[in-house]
């Protein structure tokens, strides 16, 4: 039996990157996926998910709009009757030092990375309270734990997600609901693909070398950590930021 056998898992940002890899990993462990995204998931990955877990479905949602989220969550509950796992994977990147960030950019990043995760969790947790069970996993970042130049808006949004995780864990720990987050390092996803541009090659090399393993991570490596937190194997884990970063925050290796 899989670690998520017969579980209903809501995953935001499931159309690509870490969200897509997590959906694939969950299905391998027996889950049915309710994918929430601005676009309908497609391609070989989604076809494989639907072939393995034919009850899986997708729901169009804008995580910055609470009515959109409320409607989508209601549709999920109507179809499946329960929600066992929530993975908040919808997110955007951003760049810029303090003096360069516009109000519009600040609001965009906070609305998607922070407010969006809050809105989805708010409506999903109401069902989990009725069930007296559930696991919520937010996707934060090492930039929520460790400062990085030129990343004020993104790092601030992810730091807030880490703290939101702790507060939610405190709210629901006695109700059978666990709340954790993962803090990935730099991962090879569509979000980081911009770093493959020749003009940003030096930045990417610096970021690779910031990891003790001297490489970017892969989406499935983060998905494995999310799977652990979502499963009953982590039954005594809540309020925890699980770092999956190839050694970024562990320290700096000197080369002699």
Tell me briefly what this model is:
By secondary structure, the chain is an alpha/beta fold. The chain has helices at 17-28, 44-52, 66-80, 103-131, 152-172, 201-210, 219-230, and strands at 8-12, 32-37, 57-60, 85-88, 134-139, 177-184, 241-244.
Would you spell out the secondary-structure blueprint of this structure?
Blueprint: E1 8-12, H1 17-28, E2 32-37, H2 44-52, E3 57-60, H3 66-80, E4 85-88, H4 103-131, E5 134-139, H5 152-172, E6 177-184, H6 201-210, H7 219-230, E7 241-244
Parallel strand pairs: 1-2, 1-4, 2-3, 4-5, 5-6, 6-7
Helix pairs in contact: 1-2, 1-7, 3-4, 4-5
Number of helices: 7
Number of strands: 7
The first-level CATH class is given as Alpha Beta
List segments where confidence is low: pLDDT < 50 over at least 5 consecutive residues. none
Strand order of the largest sheet: 3-2-1-4-5-6-7
Total individual domains: 1
What number is the mean pLDDT?
93
Largest sheet: 7 strands, parallel
Structural class: alpha/beta
